[in-house]
Fold each of these.
Amino acid sequence: MPLSRQDCADLIRYIQGLLRQYDPLSFETVLRGVYASPEEDPRRYLIALLSAIQNVYAERSGGEQARILDSVNRYVRLPDGGPVRGLSVSLTPAEQEVYGTAEVNLAELPDRSEFVAEVRRILLIIESEIDWQGNRG
Amino acid sequence: MTRAQIQQQLEQIFQRHLGIAPAVTQALVPATVSAGKLYEAHVLSRVVERLVVDEGYSLTLVGGTKIQFKSAPGPINRNYPRIELRNGSACLAELWTDVEFLSLSYCKSSGASLTKGSYHELDLVIVPSGLSGRPRYDAVWLGVECKNTGYQKGLLKEILGIRRELSFVTDDQATNFNVWPRKRVPADPASCLMVYSTDAKVNDYAAPGQIFGIDFIHEPM
């Protein structure tokens, strides 16, 4: 039985609950990345919500960092011919005071590649199961 | 698959992958600090590819062994790493991250004091080699904005404002590039300006770019 608009609305609430439970600090970041409104069409909002989760966690994944660094190293070298060693974010003096470090090494981010892949798999299932013709319930 | 089955799978996925000490992760890398930076790095990887493949530059990272993004933009600081664009032994230009440029309006108003409205950020910027401080608008060869978020009208207005502060609209002018990103651009000075976004909707906003010389690229991560 295809997923109705009501099913999608229920799934939105369920996923938001999971985010609040497992990663409350990322909840707002994810919502800011959703370019849709649940009132307009919960089916489209559900797809947008899962896409935003994918994007946010892909960006924070150390596994993604390794792939990007490999890609950079195909085209950029150090003066001695060696590879670029990493990707980092340097902090402002105020942030350095708060976090006790001058920079954040993006490679130290936890590898979320599997999580992102699993969310992608569920997203594809939901897309194929949604009843796009029905406008009620 | 039913709604209940999907909910069950989602619960398992979140529990398996996010269930371990999220507080520790957040303390290590606060979201506000790293937000957007990995996407900037992803776009950088695309930009360097094109500079080598299409433009024939050899690229060298100098001033450090890691590519360094900044949590807040600022002037060019030559103590930071940057990528040199070399043609043979000559370094013609440099690629910097998170740099503010001095706006056209500021540079045209002689004697004006510097305010927060006098400069604007570009996520990636290519300028002639050897510059320090905030480069002038007419020093910018290429500016790139990276948006790992839903692309909305406000972001279009933002990039149109950046274009306004980089150049006047005019007939096509030759850029500093042979092929990529553009050989010619309807802007004077002839800077190239690009927007990369993970959101396919960025293409819905591309039309003004044809007039003002802004390239909108849908680039998933």
Amino acid sequence: MAEQTPNPPQTPLVLEAPDWGGIDTVARSRQPFILWPVADQSLLHHWLDYAQDKGYRQVRIHAVDRPTEVRSAVAASTLWPLTIDIVSAAPDPDNGSIPFAGDLPGSSGAVPPPEDGWALLKWRQALEQRRLEAIHAQEPEIRAYARLGRLCSLHPTVEIHSPVWIGDGVQIGPGSVIGPYAAIGNGCVVAGNSRVAHARLEHDTFLGVGIHLEQAWLIGGRMLSLRNQARIDRLDGLVAQPTVERREERRPRPGPWERLRAWWLLRRLKVRLRAISEDEPRPYWADRFTALREVVQGNCRLFGILPRPEGEKPDLDEWRDLLQSAPKGAFSLADVYACHTPGADDEPVHAVFQAVANEADVALILEAHLRRILREDGLD
Amino acid sequence: MAASRNPLPHSPYRTFSAPEIRRWNRRARRKSLQWRSALALAGGLKRGIDIVGAVVGIIVFGPFMVVIALLIRWEDGPPVLFRQVRVGAQGRPFQILKFRSMVKDAEALRRNLEVANKHPGGVTFKVKADPRITRVGKWIRKMSLDETPQFFNVLRGDMALVGPRPPLPAEVTAYKSVHLRRLRIKPGITCLWQIGGRANIDFDEQVRLDLRYIQSESIWQDLRILFLTIPAVILGRGAY
């Protein structure tokens, strides 16, 4: 086990990440499929494990679906001593067949890929089941450490039916039955007399007393039931709830500097507006004073997507959740492209891009845009 | 509390009144909060013990450290301390501090000694009667006093008192994925294999002991390992 790979490969391991963002109509995840959890870690980390085992020193991932998210995940994956490049384009078909990272390493790839949202969830569950079986098939001593995390508290009456995976810092109450094919994420609390089988509890989820969870994926208070093909966005707190506030559920608040900047902008723009004669067309930013006051009061961000109207364009309906959860702001990326009304023209496209893009990059563009507005009158 | 009435007599489920649901919600939140507080307290307590232990270690070993520094300087000149990049928690590199126990160009001489490696073909490098070790170095290695500057690493938060020994980056590149699990927590000055056979046990056994420690980690386990390290150091088991 400790011996070095006799002839480590000199070429990088090239992977093709799945581009399934378009068919993710049920989970509507903020993350591309390669970052979805499969048992103990994300699919990306399973591939990094594979690269490490095979002795690769470099990995190149072709990620078309949300490459920014993949880049952030790779930057946070410091555990693997690998050089990882992300290419935001599909691989060249002339380069021969390259491993498809929508599946677990070492699989035959004979099964047809999913075609809709529920098939995608079933695909993930099938991967998870195979991974749990692989954990169970490991040599007994390694298996003991692989299937149960650290700092866990399991009541003596808890029944475990392999294969299962239980993460770090999990508490399971008396009389609960876990497994088979159960994955309990880090920091979960399972109250007494509950049963989890063929299901996954995402990190930091509380499962209430006497709940029988089967064929489901529970993410905080949201349940995706594969058996009934039903999505419930908010379960009652006594059934399930997040133990910590999740990133996507957090209401974005501006920091003190951002509020100060909004106050300064409000003053400068008012001066700028007074300088504009009545014959000139009214600039779009004259309607953002109320929004800027909201930023000063700490109710919304300075840079974010424009607050959405009730009806959304049908062709962007699949992004509705993403746009609803994205931080709203006084100025948006769409303003740079002369789209100043939410939902009009190409504004939703810019809004979707802004919702998935790096916040710092967008802030740089918008700062330049604001400087341009102020400079037009020599105010900046 | 208002009695709740089951609208479906044949159903095994009963309905709950609004006050009941509120009470259960509060209980659920309290239970989650208690567990999260317990986890945070465990982490805080470990860090607290590390800081207190490192300060006590520096006070107790301070006079020895001064004497060792003077002896190294007298025998082989400066530098007294040896800084090396090691891999810490979550694979993040940091600089470990040690008293220099080898001659100045020890790394360059290592290639000539690969034949005598006690872990051949493995990921670690250990040699008995290493000719690069100085006279003072041999003595401080036997007593494990060359590791005492690591109390400063503990104070800085790079290391803990108890945890898997931090590997070299070159060793980590030869790891299999299962070995990477030992990098999930902060490395330490001493661990289970330090009090067992120390350098006498092979790499696989070291990993197994590290994984066993990581899974059964507790304050009492840490204190037990710390106390058992003292006789292991005094008797010099497996140190060379």
